[in-house]
Amino acid sequence: MITVGSLCFLFRRRTKLRVTKSTKRRITEATGNYSVPIYPYKDIEKATNSFSEKQQLGNGAYGTVYAGKLYNDEWVAIKRIKHRDTDSIEQVMNEIKLLSSVSHTNLVRLLGCSIEYGEQILVFEFMPNGTLSQHLQRERGNGLPWPVRLTIAAETAQAIAHLHSTINPPIYHRDIKSSNILLDYNFRSKVADFGLSRLGMTETSHISTAPQGTPGYVDPQYHQDFQLSDKSDVYSFGVVLVEIITGMKVVDFSRPHNEVNLASLAADRIGKGLLDEIIDPFLEPEVSNDAWTFSSVHKISELAFRCLAFHRDMRPSMTEIATELEHLRLSNWSSFGDNNVTTSTELSSCSTSSYQSEKPLKMIMEKKVEPEVKANKAYLRIQTGPVALKSLERNNSASPVSMQDPEIWLSEQSSPSSYSFPSKSFN
């Protein structure tokens, strides 16, 4: 009996070792010349307190993300993949391959992975200020001022343009959305979640693939003809620009039937010159009292309108978008001091102490941004303060994909935003 038990134990152990070695080999093959650190599973388990619910940041369809403190006292985001079938392995390998081969200030950084005991775990740099979506929806703070929104848009565009134009072959993200735009200590943009990304073709302008992505952000022409191109990301980014201007949900069934889809609503209002009807009320004081804000908001709306064109050939490239946004952002540079980050007095709402909690991570001491007002302009000083977890309700609403017809639905499951902190966040 003891002998049989021992044999079973040795067999299981040998099988796990064989699978682990095979996975390590696949990681090496996927990353090529790029080295991806492999963390021992026991270190991951210790960092997350055995995957404690108290350290859970988000829970998506494909995985759960935890805050973890490594042996060197570094806080990281640990993404634990739920499914362990062939598709999930391919998605993990795809994400490792892409993230290990690209480097940009505004792309989330992969720190390593763990593949022991049948687990599929990715380790990312820690983003304490959650997602752009959370701030636009007032799930964190009281709202972002226009200069901060514009800076986030410009930085995000630069990151996507880098994927499209600098990498060879180009990379198409396929899931650009506000909940995949993470914010660091100083509210700098970091594009995340490359699980659905695909390499483009150098000899053609598009590739054929079944539509995937998040409903409400998916290029309607891509959904129609299955032809994926860089302009599919452009459409999705156009939806993000509309979110930045309006602060509205991408889908909202409380709105009239023909306005459920935000892209459709925005295209209608912008096309009719009625943008003022949908501008985020939080921005109204800035828009009404500052000529530059008024002008730049309208220019961004025109850019969003072009991004949302049904025919991909009518949309600008991400390089053109990034250039336009950066030029617009810098046009107001003279309005700020030498040592500031573009912002306004309301930025304190992004890091107010009222959003701190009593959870275990409250003792993390990191930089936070607070404004110092002078002559109605904001100058930032960096201070240290506690960063803490706050529970947030997850928005599970689905949304139509076509700005032409809200009745058309996307049946494919959207990609996970698991390390974009949808359920809980740091502040």
From TrEMBL:
One of its GO terms (molecular function) is protein serine/threonine kinase activity. It catalyses: L-threonyl-[protein] + ATP = O-phospho-L-threonyl-[protein] + ADP + H(+); L-seryl-[protein] + ATP = O-phospho-L-seryl-[protein] + ADP + H(+). Keywords: ATP-binding, Glycoprotein, Kinase, Membrane, Nucleotide-binding, Serine/threonine-protein kinase, Signal, Transferase, Transmembrane, Transmembrane helix. SUPFAM superfamilies: Protein kinase-like (PK-like) (SSF56112). PROSITE patterns: PROTEIN_KINASE_ATP (PS00107), PROTEIN_KINASE_DOM (PS50011), PROTEIN_KINASE_ST (PS00108). ATP binds at residue 79. GO terms for cellular component: plasma membrane. It comes from the Eukaryota. It is found in: Membrane. Residues 51-330 form the Protein kinase domain. It is a single-pass membrane protein. Serine/threonine-protein kinase that may function as a signaling receptor of extracellular matrix component. PANTHER family: LEAF RUST 10 DISEASE-RESISTANCE LOCUS RECEPTOR-LIKE PROTEIN KINASE-LIKE 1.4, PROTEIN KINASE DOMAIN-CONTAINING PROTEIN. This is Protein kinase domain-containing protein. It comes from Lupinus angustifolius (Narrow-leaved blue lupine). The lineage of its organism: Eukaryota, Viridiplantae, Streptophyta, Embryophyta, Tracheophyta.
